[in-house]
Fold:
Amino acid sequence: MPVEIISVGSEFIIQDTRNNSVAVIARQLLDAGIEVDYVSFVSGQENRLEDILRQAIGRSNLIFIVAKVLSGEYDTAKKLLTRVLKKRLILNYKLLDAIKAEYDARGDTMPPTAEKQALVPTEAEMLDNEKGRTPAFLFAHEQNSVILLPGQPDEIAPIIKQRILPRLDPKTFRFGAVNGMILKTCGLPLSSMKELLKSIDREGGQQYINYVEDGEEISIILTVKGEIQTDVESRLRLMNEQIVKKLERYVYGVGAETLEEVVGRLLTDRKATVALAESCTGGLIAHKLTNIAGSSAYMERGVVAYSNDAKMSLLDVSPNIIERHGAVSAETAVAMAEGIRWLSQTTYGVAVTGIAGPGGATPEKPVGLVFIAVASEQRGTQWRKCQFPGDRLEVKTRTAQTALDMLRGELLREK
Structure:
């Protein structure tokens, strides 16, 4: 019985092709032994969305529809789904009161358009959302189960786990057994990775690898199928061991782990601290690290030293270094890392300087040229010269990822 996910909203298509909400649903289903057969991405235009809904109902038995609430796609999907399934919408006064209370708490007046958020489909089960106000809905239609979800990954996960998976029998949606896992890597190009893993990736539908790129990071998605679940799990463990052995230090995590989470855990385990000196990334590395709860235990400070004057006055970089080598140089990156570490008295100092573009380049120093340095007492200062492709945001993202990965490497060496 086919399983399908429909992601509604132009922001999913334009801003984030990886689509975290879809990944959350697919991951939880796979953990339960249910493989997704179709994934559709569609804008919030009503005619296109209605076409996709009718196609999905015609070909799939378990359908998840995920749509953003604030941008209005959730209400559009709810209205069209009700029409396609020949239901109707009625006003839920309890939900309406909750919406009004939110506006009152903010000191705002609820606009009339907000009332449609309190419309609920008839003959659909409303599923509680413990992380947010907007509920999910489960429709039973002939041989289909259709689930409408708000498009926030942190809200979706508990709804799937607590409200949906207990109702599903994996045997209904697959033949035999299936299992999978995700390995997170950083620093190895996709072409090199595929070459290293080609002996493990077997065609034929029983064992295969997919890759998702995100700047300098690549997620390796492993899927194994078979007749017996214990055999599938055994082969999946073997795949994992083989890949980790071949890729070694490039594998930094499993599943939904982020690089900043792994770095934070290593810093905590080693009772180490870090300070950051950022130029071209404009504070992005600090943003990533401080997104992690408990980061105050290891994150001492972050300085955005964008100008040459800031590098000299805030980080104690010698004017002679900048004059002789330039702001974008290994020497300046090293001086920045050592300066921030000395000033903050931390275990590590991390620094980045580069040309994010589109302007500011020269023939000798093109757009995407970045120098990254990590200073520590035990190993001194390590630095790396990088040439990143992409636009300004891509260069900043790749720089932040690589800097965190360099710090991870230093932490692993200093056990």
